[in-house]
Write a structure and sequence with these properties.
Order of helices and strands: HEHEEEHEEEEEHEHHEEEHHH
Radius of gyration: 17 Å
Protein name: CoA-transferase subunit beta
Number of strands: 13
InterPro entries: CoA_trans_fam_I, NagB/RpiA_transferase-like
Pfam family, one: CoA_trans
Oligomer: single chain
Family: Belongs to the 3-oxoacid CoA-transferase subunit B family.
């Protein structure tokens, strides 16, 4: 197989987010997470349910619909913890608080974004990971301008009702995979994508980031995985538009 691209490392990293989840609804937001969820379903996570984000359950091959998912049933999956969503983030802080609503003071924002939407329910009721296609100081900030997705510090402050199902498995970016497996539940680098240095990640992050001296690289996709990505799941190469080489 030809050289693995950065986008393909990101696909594999996103796929790994659903490893071990069992029979849950995978809700990927973005091209690379979608390709990753399909790759997971085709390889090590056959029990995953895939959705188009609206009303259909999708098969592993493009264009194949397996069933209908009524909105009421979708909400019951969310509230019951049977979904693992990978959302985007306009801002993320060291504790995992996410902002997709506005930039600046929410009373008079400089820029209006998507709005809070379902982020609080997602983060408190089921596992929520994040996908950031451009790792930068604009996204990784010391303090988010508005909390939409709930981070570990705010969940802890709210008490057991908030922490019972709260979990942020990982944050995947075009530079690295990050998680919160630290004593104080603050962000650290789990792996660097091949070709990326720890210094690059530090310079692109707006707060002090825990990076071990022996931090590993994100795993290589197997030949079989590359064939699935390139020939079955994303033959048009849309992943490369989201994460250019």
């Amino acid at each position: 197989m030809s050289t693995v691209t950065r986008a393909e490392y990101c696909v594999v990293a996103c796929a790994e987010a659903w490893r071990g989840d069992g029979e849950v609804l995978a809700a990927p937001m973005g091209t690379v997470p979608r390709v990753g969820a399909q790759l997971a379903r085709l390889t090590f996570a056959p029990d995953l349910l895939l959705t188009d984000g609206e009303a259909m359950l999708l098969g592993t091959e493009p264009g194949v619909v397996e069933g209908w998912l009524p909105y009421r049933q979708h909400l019951s999956l969310v509230s019951g913890g049977k979904r693992h969503v990978m959302m985007g983030a306009s801002q993320l802080d060291r504790h995992g608080n996410q902002n997709i609503s506005c930039i600046g003071d929410w009373k008079r924002p400089r820029r209006q974004l998507l709005g809070v939407r379902g982020a609080p329910v997602n983060t408190l009721n089921n596992p929520t990971s994040y996908w950031v296609p451009r790792h930068s100081r604009r996204v990784f900030v010391e303090r988010v301008d508005m909390v939409c997705g709930v981070g570990y510090d705010r969940a802890a402050a709210a008490g057991p009702s908030a922490t019972r199902y709260h979990r942020i498995p990982c944050v995947v970016t075009d530079l690295a995979v990050l998680d919160f497996a630290t004593p104080d539940r603050t962000m650290r680098v789990r792996s660097l994508h091949p070709g990326v240095t720890a210094q690059q990640v530090r310079e692109a992050t707006g707060f002090a980031l825990d990076i071990a001296d022996d931090v590993p690289y994100t795993r290589e996709p197997t030949g079989a995985e590359l064939r699935l990505i390139r020939e079955l799941i994303d033959p048009e190469g849309l992943r490369e538009r989201e994460v250019p080489a």
